[in-house]
Amino acid sequence: MSRRCELTGVGPMVGHNVSHSNIKTKRRFLPALRATRLQSDALGQSYTLKISNAALRTLDFRGGLDSFLVKADDTVLSPRARKLKTQIKAKLATQPAA
């Protein structure tokens, strides 16, 4: 499984380990990922997604999974998240606006 956030698309970055003698060797900086169970208010279900800790803070700031996915760009979302987004949009379109 790839080390990529399903909501923000954050993946590994490349950099250097720099020794005391200034010798540089390649290394990878892996994102801080965690498998998190997220609740969808529109669908009434919970889903387990592998997201970064920064994405988890963003979800709290934006008001939950539904509002985050509706505003998110499709190019950064994983296929599972894109499918979830279309289901949420369809469900919100059928509900009357209150």
Present the secondary structure layout.
Blueprint: E1 13-18, E2 24-29, E3 33-40, E4 45-52, H1 53-62, H2 65-71, H3 79-94
Antiparallel strand pairs: 1-2, 3-4
Explain this structure.
- The chain is an alpha+beta fold and 98 residues long.
- The protein has one domain: Ribosomal protein L28/L24 (Ribosomal Protein L24e, Chain: T, Roll).
- The chain is built from three helices and four strands.
- The strands form two sheets. Strands 1-2 form a two-stranded antiparallel ribbon. Strands 3-4 form a two-stranded antiparallel sheet.
- β3 and β4 form a beta hairpin.
- The termini are far apart.
Q: Whole-number radius of gyration?
A: 17 Å
CATH fold title = Ribosomal Protein L24e, Chain: T
Q: Order of strands across the biggest sheet?
A: 1-2
Question: What is the total domain count?
Answer: 1
Largest sheet: 2 strands, antiparallel
Give the class from helix and strand content and strand pairing: alpha+beta
Highest CATH level, the class: Mainly Beta
Helical region count? 3
Q: What is the approximate shape?
A: elongated
Q: What is the annotated CATH architecture?
A: Roll
Helix content: 25-40%
Integer average pLDDT: 94
Helices and strands, in N-to-C order?
Answer: EEEEHHH
Are there runs of 5+ residues with pLDDT below 50, and where? none
Report the sheet-strand fraction: 25-35%
End-to-end distance, in Å? 41 Å
CATH superfamily: Ribosomal protein L28/L24
Strand runs, count: 4
